[in-house]
Amino acid sequence: xxxxxxxxxxxxxxxxxxxxxxxxxxxxxxxxxxxxxxxxxxxxxxxxxxxxxxxxxxxxxxxxxxxxxxxxxxxxxxxxxxxxxxxxxxxxxxxxxxxxxxxxxxxxxxxxxxxxxxxxxxxxxxxxxxxxxxxxxxxxxxxxxxxxxxxxxxxxxxxxxxxxxxxxxxxxxxxxxxxxxxxxxxxxxxxxxxxxxxxxxxxxxxxxxxxxxxxxxxxxxxxxxxxxxxxxxxxxxxxxxxxxxxxxxxxx
Length: 252
Hints:
The protein is an alpha+beta fold. It has 7 helices and 11 strands.
């Protein structure tokens, strides 16, 4: 469900939400609300939340989560409406022009996501995604959801990178690019291949490719519990500039 609020032809707020189709747990949903700074404290966000809660009731959502950049204002608003903090972690950024590409370990092969194709990457994502810290662990990832994300216009499949062992994708990283800014999507590695530096390699290749596209800032975030990926990001020069939080609410 998507709701837009406009004033004099200008969008001033958005509220969207729906079922969480990535978890095997029934009755799980997600939502996000954003109101432009100059129009806050007018009840617009609360009205959008009320519409989303009615939608959740209609589609059978019993628990919902929301993800946003931490701020005292945002947390205060969420807490006052029955939400509670579930997870948090640093927002980090790096200038990809400062990153040096790492050598690929012997026996492995680097390729772009475009070269690998969606089926090969999807199989690796299915194994890696359940291990990422989340309030509701990934237990179900429909291919149609994956391919919808794959085909989004900001996903650069020539910059997104994978590592092959033979004909099997064993590590991967996604990159979303808009002008000179980019965001790392999901980075993952199959369980049997962890601890070999493949996540570091795949990220350095993608970051240097992004720099060649004219990107000067790449952002990403990880939960505090994801110590391994946070260590990789520190090694590559990512520095904190804020915090993300995930809040949840029971709707029964």
